Amino acid sequence: MQLLFETFRYNFYKLDCLLDIEEMKKYIPDYFAYYLLFPKSYKDRGVLCEDKRLMYRISKGLKINQPHEIFSINNGILFSPISEKIQESEALVLIKESQSQKIFVKPTLGVGGKGIYVFNKKDGIFYNKDHDMPLDSSFLKLILPLNYIVQEGVTQHAELNQIYPHSLNTFRMVTEIKDNFTVNILFSLLRVGCGGNQIDNASSGGIYVRINKETGLFSSIAYSDQDHTYDEHPDTRFKFKDYVFPMWEEVISFTKKIALNFCEIKYIGWDIAFSSNGPVLIEANNGPSIEIIQDVYGGCQLDFGIHSPKQYWFSDKYHVVTTN
Hints:
Layout: H1 2-9, H2 21-24, H3 30-42, H4 47-50, H5 52-61, E1 69-74, E2 77-79, H6 88-97, E3 102-107, E4 117-122, E5 125-128, E6 133-134, H7 137-143, E7 148-152, H8 158-161, E8 170-177, E9 183-192, E10 207-211, E11 218-224, E12 229-230, H9 248-261, E13 267-275, E14 278-285, H10 290-297
Antiparallel strand pairs: 1-2, 1-7, 3-4, 3-7, 4-5, 5-6, 8-9, 8-13, 9-10, 10-11, 11-12, 13-14
């Protein structure tokens, strides 16, 4: 079944596929990436990236630029940004006092943009048009049994607004920590929203384009999770070919700096926005989407240093158990 998935995901079955068998073998299967490769990278530190609330607090202590937290919810308890318990009435005041035009309500352990609520300010009230509801007491009661982090939206730089203005478009930067504690950027791409969506995740309808990690030059083609390709953004008609992001060095420098702070995790996929004031860390992924990476880069076995895949099947803590 897994082989069948890879065959269709990467179009190995098509008559016009130019890859030979050896090139196809360089593609990393999902099960290998998420159950063997990445777990051996993060080991017991995976929660650092998985828990958005924890990641926010650690990054805040490290003075990493990130969206402002309004409050969070942990096991039904409301907390201020400095981890003090607050009442619902206090949370509502914090919402009212926010000067942001958008508020994002994210599941603490959510992935792929699932479960995120986006509220836009209109006439002083934050409102979610998708669910036809305001960010008020009724909404808080709805999500209180769960765990969420509530953050202000980032004012996106005009350079990225011209590509697509309705979502916060983020650079996915995949870093590798080398044995001498230097940072190597393995892959870089930009994720962009589409169709009026306010999130850029590929699984939620976004598209993604490869970026030359040395120069910031965009590839001429963007991809979607539905195997569609685009030489221009379908909504704004922004053409990807020959575009170079002018503040690319800032993105690179910011990425390497934050990666060193989490050097115990060998591979991390960073989601980095670019605001009017520079780079902003949105979140970190200890299992960066191997599918979208290989969509734009091709088979990545050697990029991850996988010369003998059998070595990953058994280790002291991570292995696959087989039965006869």
